[in-house]
Write a structure and sequence with these properties.
The complex is a heterodimer of chains A (393) and B (375). By secondary structure, chain A is α/β, with parallel strands linked by helices. Chain A has helices spanning 19-34, 60-67, 86-96, 98-103, 122-136, 190-200, 218-235, 246-255, 261-279, 299-306, 322-331, 335-338, 360-368, 373-381, and strands spanning 3-9, 40-45, 48-53, 73-82, 106-113, 141-142, 149-155, 160-163, 167-171, 180-184, 204-211, 238-244, 284-286, 312-314, 384-388. Chain B has helices at residues 15-26, 37-57, 70-85, 100-111, 129-135, 158-168, 189-192, 241-252, 256-275, 302-311, 329-333, 338-342, 355-371; strands spanning 3-4, 64-67, 91-95, 115-119, 140-144, 173-177, 196-200, 211-215, 280-282, 292-297, 314-315, 317-318, 344-348. In chain B, helix 9 (256-275) packs parallel to helix 13 (355-371).
């Protein structure tokens, strides 16, 4: 039996005249994520995208899993393809959904006839298919109000399709339609979630990670790579820049007041990141900050950090509780990696009593005295580039 | 050049042992349980390895049971004894500085309803006989004390402890985790008065994935796994013969006295050189096993120094086994303050180490102390 995936476009159907370009990006993203599984034909019509496998040996379970992570799709179904004749529909429906039908107690048939040339009208299709199913599965009862299983029959321009309940898609809008932004990623729980959330709104990501060997270990960097591969399943392939941060952190430690270590470090990170972002045509920075979570994320501290860069900064987690963030990290499968206990650059040289209400003027003074510019230039000249792909996960 | 000084974590497999494993995997690959000649040839390898290991411990062949390693040997010892003796009593005494494969097994037994007493070491990191003895009572079924501590190299008076325990109550099963002592000092199960003793292959230049538990004749323990007749049903499952035969080969290569002398010199040299560096404190006591040398380096965090040294191809271990912030239990029990415990490093030698390795280490630590920012 031939199968196909029917994907329902999300909010891009509202995009008016730009809809075509959104749909093109979505199709390209689908093609990229499915490429390593085999050849597919991807076409669209009537706010549905048809993903048709071109050979029989393609793993459609895996294809469904990957499709479920592509932003821009609200729902999708794995369907049987049959000829546009009532006979073929009647023989296919009970066979294709045999397993679901034998476990259900109640069902109903819903038919959509967008090809008006098909001789039977929708209610007639429902009646015919329902009768056929009842004759094959006599234990079933029809319940049009609250059925356990809905058998969908769609008669469209190119063929007829039969499927059970549609699955939920990832929602959002296609990655790449929202421009590019740079995510500051440490290895904790929050930043991968922030990355995921902005990718959902169509952002194509570039990652910036700060490494301070030997204060941080190679495993900490490897951990970030593995986190980004998980995020890549949603956000597509991306570049990751590793900034050598050791000398800067040592200078902060040697020449700045202890209670301002973290705040100055974060300002420098923002400054370096906006530089990397500009080089990569990014329009914004993304951070995993959540208001009040730690001393460096109080409203005063955020104001000081924010001042360090002119670039637009997205903080998608700003109003979320830790548990809400953790829930998403479970969903996107980053939690277990995030909690691995390797030191990252944020936990090196943490002050005993960080300033929770820093005064910007004094912070700037404290930061200007040592003169970080030459070290920043040196760091920017020695960026390490890694290509992140979900395929390596 | 690489300077591997983390031999308490694992060791390089000796050439002969690696050869042996390869030979078993590619030529003598039979299943020791098979009735045909190929099986017999494999079985003979198993017998040879068992004999070698039995002999090295002063045990008889029937008292050696191969396992997947030290962890399985320790787990088998603790759970197997607890299960076998549960009708006689429910108290188990272990030292508080055991390897996690003993501590965690003991904790699990605690949740299963056993009473577990953890004996703290003295300021030298040594478990004292009288402390163990005072915990022994009529309901005690087992005592487990390691032979040598993995973090400091402290040698426990195991023979003393076991004799005293047996004198008080001869039914108590005495187990020692000898993983860090095996091949380094001569061990004799009779002289130790041990009923159970665990060893591991990969700490003695054999491959990872095999170990053995000595079970004194007449001692009954309940197995953890069920299946075939292998290892007298104590550890069923087709034997990991390539690893076991290599283990036998590696143990056959033991030259305990000769190597001890060599390592003693190396340790002495390291102590001398390290003493010249400002800010180094030696944590291992002078009478600890010379294969392990625990030090604290200035105020640089263990992990930072470790990563600094790895850049110079010097590989050691952080003294505090815990990854995040928590200072080592053993070192705090020895009365080290937080700073010293946080900067603790463990250097551990093998017969392959030379003066060059120590020189590279000392030069590295000296450079690290100069360049690395303090916490």
């Amino acid at each position: 039996m031939k199968e196909i995936l029917l994907l329902k476009d999300g909010e891009i159907v509202l995009k008016g005249l730009n809809r075509r370009s959104f749909e093109d990006v979505l199709k390209k993203n689908l093609k990229n994520t499915l490429r390593s599984l085999g050849r597919f034909e991807i076409t669209s019509a009537q706010s549905t995208i048809y993903v048709k496998p071109l050979s029989d040996d393609i793993d459609l379970d895996e294809a469904c899993d990957r499709v479920s992570k592509v932003f821009g799709i609200v729902a999708f179904s794995r369907a049987a393809v049959c000829e546009k004749t009532i006979d073929d529909i009647l023989s296919t429906a009970p066979e294709y959904l045999a397993k679901e039908l034998s476990f259900a107690k109640t069902f109903k048939v819903e038919a959509k006839r967008s090809d008006k040339k098909f001789p039977l009208k929708s209610p007639e299709i429902c009646r015919e298919v329902g009768g056929e199913i009842l004759s094959k599965f006599p234990h079933l009862r029809v319940d049009v109000h609250n059925p356990e299983l809905i058998v969908n029959v769609e008669v469209r321009d190119f063929g007829a399709y039969i499927h059970g309940e549609p699955r939920k898609g990832a929602g959002g809008i296609p990655v790449g339609t929202g421009g590019k932004a740079a995510i500051l990623i440490s290895g904790g729980i929050d930043s991968p979630v922030a990355a995921y959330m902005m990718a959902k709104r169509g952002i194509q990501l570039t990652a910036v990670h700060f490494a301070s060997p030997p204060y941080t270990s190679r495993r900490a960097e490897d951990k970030v790579v593995r986190l980004l591969r998980k995020v890549s399943k949603y956000a597509g392939p991306m570049k990751m820049y590793t900034v050598p941060f050791t000398k800067i952190q040592e200078k902060i430690k040697d020449e700045c007041p202890e209670e301002l270590f973290t705040i100055i470090m974060r300002r420098l990170m923002m400054q370096i990141s906006s530089n990397v972002a500009q080089q990569n045509e990014c329009f914004a920075l993304i951070t995993g900050e959540s208001l009040g979570q730690v001393a460096s994320q109080t409203i005063g501290a955020l104001a000081c950090t924010d001042d360090a860069s002119d670039m637009l900064v997205f903080r998608p987690l700003i109003g979320m509780d830790k548990q809400e963030i953790i829930d998403i990290s479970y969903k996107i499968d980053t939690y277990d990696i995030s909690i691995e206990p390797y030191e990252d650059c944020c936990t090196v040289f943490t002050p005993k009593h960080p300033r929770t209400r820093p005064v910007l003027k004094y912070v700037i003074e404290a930061q200007e005295k040592p003169g970080f510019e030459p070290l920043i230039e040196e760091a920017l000249a020695n960026l390490k580039l890694t290509y992140i792909s979900a395929e390596d996960d | 050049m690489e300077h591997y000084l983390d031999n308490s974590a694992t060791t390089a497999v000796s050439q002969c042992a690696a050869q042996k494993a390869l030979e078993i995997m590619t030529k003598n690959y039979g299943n020791p349980s098979s009735l045909h000649l190929k099986g017999l040839c494999a079985e003979q390898e198993l017998v040879t390895a068992r004999k070698t290991i039995a002999k090295s411990l002063g045990a008889s062949n029937e008292e050696i049971f191969f396992t997947s390693g030290g962890t399985e040997a320790n787990n088998t010892a603790l759970f197997g004894t607890a299960q076998a003796k549960k009708r006689r009593g429910n108290k188990i005494i272990v030292s508080s500085i055991e390897h996690s494969s003993v501590i965690e097994a003991a904790k699990k037994l605690e949740t299963d309803g056993f009473e577990v007493v953890y004996i703290e070491p003295d300021r030298d990191g040594i478990i004292r006989t009288e402390d163990v003895l005072s915990a022994v009572d009529d309901s005690t079924i087992m005592v487990s004390v390691m032979t040598v501590n993995n973090e400091t190299g402290a040698i426990m008076p195991v023979a003393d402890i076991f004799s005293a325990v047996k004198a008080k109550n001869n039914d108590i099963i005495c187990h020692t985790d000898a993983v860090q002592a095996f091949g380094k000092i001569s061990l004799n199960v009779r002289r130790l008065n041990a009923d159970l003793l665990s060893v591991s292959g990969h700490k003695v230049h054999a491959p990872k994935g095999c170990g053995a538990l000595y079970i004194k004749k007449g001692i009954r323990i309940v197995p953890l796994h069920y299946g075939g007749e292998q290892e007298s049903k104590i550890r069923p499952g087709t034997e990991a013969l390539p690893l076991i035969a290599a283990f036998g080969t590696a143990v056959g290569e033991f030259k305990i006295d000769e190597n001890y002398g060599k390592i003693l010199q190396l340790n002495g040299y390291a102590r001398e050189q390290l003493a010249k560096i400002d800010g180094i404190v030696i944590n291992s006591t002078p009478n600890a096993l010379p294969y392990v040398l625990n030090i604290s380096a200035g105020r640089v965090r263990s992990e930072t120094m470790l990563h600094f040294l790895e850049e110079l191809e010097v590989f050691i271990s952080s003294g505090s086994a815990c990854a995040k912030g928590k200072p080592s239990h053993v070192l705090s029990a020895m009365g080290l303050d937080k700073n010293r415990a946080d900067s603790a490093l463990r250097i551990s030698f093998s017969k392959y180490n030379t003066i060059d390795d120590v020189d590279a280490l000392c030069a590295g630590i000296e450079a690290g102390l100069k360049t690395l920012a303090h916490r």
